UniProtKB/TrEMBL annotation:
Residues 100-117 have a biased composition (Basic and acidic residues). It comes from Xylaria bambusicola. GO terms for molecular function: hydrolase activity. Belongs to the peptidase S33 family. This is AB hydrolase-1 domain-containing protein. It holds the Pfam family Abhydrolase_6.
Length: 344
């Protein structure tokens, strides 16, 4: 059973609506979306907040965050009589994920290998099309995009910002996937040449390392297939460095805001022990957590120092920070919205 604190029920406001959208580029399949329409003609109303899922947590995990953001924005408006502003919001399930039952139509194309139908660049192109179909300012200018992403969604956000830098104003990265890792090499190989058992921490054994490497290879290695048929095998080639390429020329020539949030190391270690992987706490504390934290530190260098923050440690949160503390995510997202608005 997952190591999770119970969360209070959060009522969803009627401003969050649910839609099925067919991309004009893929008209035979539907994407299931949750949306909030923007209000106002100034401030954050010209911003589109896009929530990007990981492989496991679907768009439903973002709904409490969206609701709490709307609540915070409403409270802020109440302190300024006559001013009502909110951004447009979008969460969606990719093909074959969550409420989106339809598969990616391109997965059945000629020469496609079963289980490896499309990659993250394909996801980026689909997202570009989806955004183009749902957004447009009254003056016909494209909206500024702010990503709130978790896990592999963070890689999608980075790739989108690389492909379309003139559109992205900010990224809130929640426990990003280590895109350049095979998730096995994190741990020393007890069968490797020159391995010294005496170099191990006191509470780690060669047997523990071998078992952990086996489990991680079977579950997390980029070659492992998933329900989306999302091919991760080239992800380390697409994003070989956590801090490169730099995103220093974004919207209107300005660097985007980048906030990096990581899981609570001790919480994550206990969660990993109690989860299906049953990863020993000593393994998480000596290898997984330090490696992940170094990756997060590098992510903060994607943008200019004045636009960067983190790594912020999400206390009492595991990998799915938006599930474990939606209030924190809403607070950080609203803070970034304010910063983007003030920077425009």
């Amino acid at each position: 059973m997952a190591f999770v604190l119970p969360q209070p029920a959060i009522a969803l406001p009627p401003s969050i609506t649910f839609d099925s959208i067919r991309l004009s580029t893929k008209p035979t399949a539907c994407l299931e979306c949750s949306q909030v329409q923007s209000v106002g003609q100034s401030g954050c109303s010209g911003i589109l907040v896009v929530f990007l899922n990981g492989l496991i947590a679907p768009q439903s995990f973002w709904l409490p965050v969206m609701a709490l953001m709307l609540r915070r924005l409403k409270m802020a408006d109440s302190s300024s009589p006559g001013a009502t502003h909110r951004p447009q919001m979008l969460a969606y399930d990719r093909y074959g994920q969550g409420r989106t039952i339809d598969r990616d139509p391109s997965d059945s194309g000629e020469g496609k290998e079963e289980g490896y139908g499309h990659d993250t660049l394909d996801v980026v192109r689909d997202l570009r099309q989806l955004i183009s179909q749902i957004t447009r300012n009254p003056d016909d200018r494209p909206k500024r995009i702010m990503f709130v992403a978790n896990s592999i969604g963070c890689a999608v956000a980075r790739l989108y910002a690389q492909q379309y830098p003139e559109t992205v104003a900010g990224m809130l990265l929640l426990d990003s996937i280590m895109a350049n890792s095979d998730f096995v090499s994190i741990f020393p190989d007890p069968t490797g040449l020159g391995f010294d058992p005496g170099s191990l921490p006191q509470d780690v054994t060669p047997e523990m390392l071998s078992e952990t490497r086996r489990k991680f290879r079977e579950v997390f290695h980029p070659s492992v297939k998933n329900s989306e048929s999302l091919d991760r095998r080239n992800l380390a080639i697409l994003l070989p460095d956590a801090d490169k390429p730099s995103l220093d020329h974004g919207l209107a020539g300005k660097s985007p805001f980048v906030a990096v949030v990581g899981h609570d190391p001790e919480w994550f270690a206990r969660e990993s022990l109690q989860g299906s992987m049953e990863t020993p706490i000593a393994i998480s504390m000596n290898y997984t957590n330090p490696t992940w934290h170094r990756y997060n530190e590098s992510l903060t260098r994607l943008t200019s120092p004045d636009k960067s923050s983190g790594p912020i440690i999400a206390k009492n949160c595991g990998h799915f920070i938006q599930r474990d503390d939606p209030g924190l995510v809403a607070e950080l997202a609203c803070g970034m919205l304010e910063a983007i608005t003030d920077d425009s």
